[in-house]
Write a structure and sequence with these properties.
alpha/beta, ten-stranded mixed β-sheet
Length: 215
């Protein structure tokens, strides 16, 4: 049965985080607020849960979900290395709306979809999300909407689209900004901007110099 928790109430927040963490450990789906839009999340290391996430969104394996982390240490454990620019970008923009695509740690046994050996990582700047991630460890998280539909900026919008496929909804109120995260690919010699988002390319260039764009 789906459970909903109002995280503006301290008691519900604490209970909701506990219930959401337990659901993630059981391989179920949860909806959580982030600093951009609401996300639908699952344990990154439970392939069946990741498959359920993609199915619920109406996506295939060719669109693997990003992974959200609660600490920089967790991010480091998931990648081969951050390259020459990753740590400077993390220091400047994490937690926040910057997703970094890196070469995934080949020793990890997980299946996020057709990633071609990469992983897209982000640490969100939202207290509810960070508290949950520190309990669960890395989570596969995508925007909490059906593919092709508008991204949810409230828990109610997420529930309207995803319904009972989600075990726990954490309601953190309306998100402050619906601009998606900027996505930067660090797997090539020159960092390439894959998606324009909340962090302008000029700010990225201010940290690492040249950033390739498609226009």
């Amino acid at each position: 049965m789906t459970k909903r928790f109002d995280c503006s109430d301290l008691d519900q927040r604490a209970e909701g985080l506990q219930e959401a963490a337990a659901a993630v450990r059981r391989g179920e789906l949860v909806v959580l607020p982030t600093d951009t839009v609401y996300g639908i999340g699952a344990d990154a290391f439970t392939p069946a849960a990741v498959t359920a996430l993609l199915t619920t969104k109406g996506r295939g394996r060719e669109m693997p979900p990003p992974v959200l982390v609660g600490t920089v240490r967790a991010a480091n454990a998931l990648v081969e290395d951050l390259g020459p620019y990753g740590q400077d970008l993390i220091d400047a923009f994490w937690p926040g709306p910057l997703t970094l695509v890196c070469k995934a740690n080949r020793a990890l046994s997980w299946d996020l979809g057709d990633t071609k050996g990469t992983v897209a990582l982000r640490m969100p700047l939202h207290p509810v999300a960070l508290d949950l991630l520190k309990e669960t460890g890395p989570m596969a998280v995508s925007s909490a909407n059906r593919s092709g539909s508008p991204a949810a900026v409230t828990a109610a919008e997420a529930e309207e689209q995803l319904g009972d496929a989600v075990a726990v909804y954490l309601d953190g109120g309306k998100t402050a900004d619906d601009t998606p995260s900027s996505i930067l690919d660090l797997t090539t010699a020159v960092p390439r901007l894959l998606r324009r988002g909340a962090i302008p390319v000029e700010k990225l260039r201010g940290i690492i110099g040249y950033v390739a764009t498609d226009g």
